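Exercise 7b. Backbone tokens:
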């Protein structure tokens, strides 16, 4: 029995996989991000949320946002070791989860378009190149956070047609002061901004909103994907809610930029199950 975790700051999806029979059992807990959480906080989350009877595993594969270096990964490993019994615990990034789920053992470009964005060149076994996403302020092009941020700016600066602006304020019952307070004074402004992509998705028939998404995807490709030497030769794969919900616009952007569309999936877990079942 192995345990696979796909973890972000908001939630963690756990899959207990019987590699011999292929049987799976899923659990969800609050997010575990060792970049922001210490050993005790992670352990408390597991003790309160992990309700599965199974605690003993051959191997645990933990893919997490924030798992970016040895010291941070060790924090997660020690907390998992206190809660579970496992012969081996492997800690790696959510970007590696994308690469394993999308590419398996094949060469490709793997991208994440969710609340944030990221990308890499994966050589079939490891991530060989990564253009730093730089986060919500300096980068994260094409992400829900940046698309939402652009929408809010265009609404408040009256850069969108008046009927869209009126529809926005009728939908959310908010005003400029409240929006600015959330962006500049409250925690997780990226999550707040990303939440407004639902408005865009529901009203994507408006040309101005469609163009906002298209421009954001063009920026992601040009500032990230096209920096990889083999970007023009390999399929460009995507995982994440933004890629999934706006996949037709994403495919259009890829083709216009002379790139080859690859897989577009919402959730990496099915691909991770397939990858680890084969190993």
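Sequence design result:
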């Amino acid at each position: 029995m192995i345990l696979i975790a796909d973890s972000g700051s908001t939630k963690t999806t756990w899959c207990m996989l019987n590699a011999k029979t292929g049987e799976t059992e899923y659990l969800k807990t609050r997010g575990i991000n060792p970049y922001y959480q210490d050993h005790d906080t992670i352990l408390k989350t597991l003790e309160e949320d992990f309700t599965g009877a199974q605690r003993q595993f051959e191997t645990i594969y933990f893919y997490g946002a924030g798992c970016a270096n040895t010291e941070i990964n060790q924090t997660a490993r020690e907390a998992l070791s206190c809660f579970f019994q496992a012969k081996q615990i492997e800690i790696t990034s959510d970007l590696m989860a994308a690469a394993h789920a999308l590419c398996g053992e094949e060469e490709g470009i793997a991208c994440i378009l969710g609340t944030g964005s990221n990308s890499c060149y994966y050589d079939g076994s490891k991530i060989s190149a990564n253009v730093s996403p730089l986060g919500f302020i300096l980068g994260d092009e094409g992400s829900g956070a940046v698309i939402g941020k652009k929408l809010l700016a265009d609404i408040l600066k009256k850069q969108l047609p008046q009927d869209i602006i009126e529809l926005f304020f009728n939908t959310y019952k908010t005003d400029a002061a409240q929006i600015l307070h959330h962006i500049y004074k409250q925690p997780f402004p990226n999550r707040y901004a990303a939440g407004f992509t639902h408005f865009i998705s529901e009203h994507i028939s408006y040309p101005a909103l469609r163009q906002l998404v298209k421009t954001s995807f063009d920026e992601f490709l040009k500032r990230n994907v096209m920096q990889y030497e083999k970007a023009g030769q390999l399929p460009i794969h995507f995982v994440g809610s933004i890629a999934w919900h706006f996949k037709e616009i994403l495919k259009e952007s890829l083709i216009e930029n002379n790139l080859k569309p690859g897989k577009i999936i919402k959730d990496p877990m099915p691909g991770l199950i397939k990858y680890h079942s084969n190993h």
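Instructor comment: The chain has a mean pLDDT of 92. Strands lie at 2-7, 11-17, 24-30, 56-64, 85-93, 108-113, 117-122, 127-129, 235-239, 260-265.
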